[in-house]
Amino acid sequence: MGEVLDGSIILVTGAGGGIGGATVTALRAAGATVIATDLRAPDGGDVNFAQDVTSETDWARIAGEIDSRFGTLDCLVNNAGLALVNRIEDETLESWRRLQSVNVESMLLSLKATLKLLKKAGETRVGGASVVNLSSVGGIGGAALMTSYCTSKGAVRLFSKSAAIEFAMLKYNIRVNSVHPGGIETAMMDDIVARYVELGAAPDAETARARLDAQHPLGRWGRPEEIASGIVYLCSPAASFMTGSELVIDGGFTAH
Could you say which of 149, 172, 196, 233 is catalytic? Predict the structure, then answer.
């Protein structure tokens, strides 16, 4: 991608995972300085912190660190998230609330904590400041055995669109978009496949993977770096007229 993000200060949550780690690598390769966070401080960022994205206190701490070190924040990538595969009748309120807390409530906490820094960047940065929220194709079309997850990702989609409209109306010069991956080769997807087998939705992992492959017209799952490339684009000035949009990177995924 060259140096399209040269000098940009970018925060990536969930940076210890497959998509998160690939995103940190891609952003740095594009010239950005990356603050990487996860429940355990990850490797790979220019600055790495441990963070619980459901904690308002942790968000205040991270925002304070960014303010003291850099004084601004050009882009925020909300990548941290959980997946849960379960029958609706077996869902517990506790697990439901935990997933919504990580996947949805963290979006609100992130913007409340970092908005001052993003607004500052928006005053001078070409293309404005950028917020990228990770949703899923499940947040558009839904999926069996993943009601809580798809509900949360649908909420991320509309949270992003609403924030984009609000920030534009208030003239903050902060763009907000959501990214919707299809099946991606990550440890999370391996866990999802294993859970499908456990629940009897497929006789074995090979069959489960084959069925998921068939739902992607390109005939394969995506790679984390293919999602990271889309995130780099949304963070860059090249996406300066893009806000309130869903960037779907899914190999043509269909639920049929």
Answer: 149
252 — pLDDT class (breaks 50, 70, 90): very high
Give the strand order in the sheet containing 246-249: 47-50, 33-38, 9-12, 75-78, 129-134, 174-181, 246-249
pLDDT at 255: 65
| Among 130, 125, 126, 115, residue whose Cα is nearest residue 235 | 130
CATH numbers and ranges of domains, the chain: 9-183+223-249 (3.40.50.720)
Residues 6+ apart with CB under 8 A from 162: none
Q: Is the pLDDT of residue 35 over 50?
A: yes
172 flagged as catalytic: no
* pLDDT tens-place string over residues 74-114: 999 999 999 999 999 999 999 999 999 999 999 999 999 99
CB atoms within 10 A of CB 144: 13
**Bridge partners, residue 196, by sequence:** none
> pTM for this one?
0.96
